[in-house]
Design a protein that fits this description.
Elements: H1 9-30, H2 39-49, H3 59-68, E1 75-83, E2 86-88, E3 91-97, H4 103-113, H5 117-126, E4 132-138, E5 144-150, E6 165-171, E7 174-183, H6 191-201, H7 209-223, E8 233-238, E9 244-249, H8 257-271, H9 275-285, E10 289-297, E11 303-310
Length: 322
Amino acid sequence: MATAIALDPVAAKHLSLSLMHTMHQHETSFGTSWSEHDDQRGAMADARLQCGELNTSNAFAHALYLLIKNLPLNGYERSFKMAANNLWSERFLVGISTDVIALEDIVFLMRKMGLPEAFITSAQEQLPDANFIHIGFEQGQISTYKFYLEFPNGKGDASTPHPLYIGYKWNAENLDQRAISRYTRPQTMSLPNLLEKVDAMYGEQKENDVVRNIAKTIITQAAEKVSTTELLFVEVREENSPRLSFDINLYETGMHIRDLQPMLRDLREHFVIDEKEFTELMTRTEDDLAGHLSGGTDRNGNAFLTTYHACVTAGNTDTKNV
């Protein structure tokens, strides 16, 4: 027998506010409650996010972790970026298929992340054509949130209106600092042409030569593991910015971070990065799969190199989708 409770409008409103407050407190401690969440998915997500280590000393990183930890994650990567006098390792990226999360939930997620309103409008227009979304955090001079739309590879021809990715990036503390990046569709080419492309990303500045050559050495070694047709080259351009960079997928090579360590040590020395900090990072990540290699010049023309990696025990087969 069904039971009904009659409440006057004031009591009903008070109950609604109390429930909202209780949910807010729960989500602050345990992460956002999504309709897609179940115990199995939650355990899988936590295994990925906490594999090896999840540095949550940054309040913005931790807030994003709580927002995504219960989502039906499709893939997960961490990364570290090396630049002059700096090693940033508090960086992560997750992927979610648009087939398993409602569009309304994606828009809600964007708002909870704090996407600038102009970005939300733009993303909503593109969402129906996207097959994945990717959400990330990057430690650097500022704390950066990232929201990507991925479009089906090979859809249309060279005149297609969509690139492979559109990336919305913004300063978590200052929404006026924001940018949109576009990632070209993957290109395959011979090794000489691939290295020539990487050369171009570092410009003509001689001071970039050390980083340029280390990136090319890593790519040359990767080409010894697989055909260059499996080293997909993606060019990245940022709107209203001189930043120019590349991304190459290394997953098919089966290489691990330990395989890259000789080159990364040379890079550490060049960038004058603290040896203890670097060694600790290498020890934590040496068994991780080498994921993507990203490099080029930043908005100020300075050379950088970023290495993405995936914890094998977190399920390396689905990290390729990130």
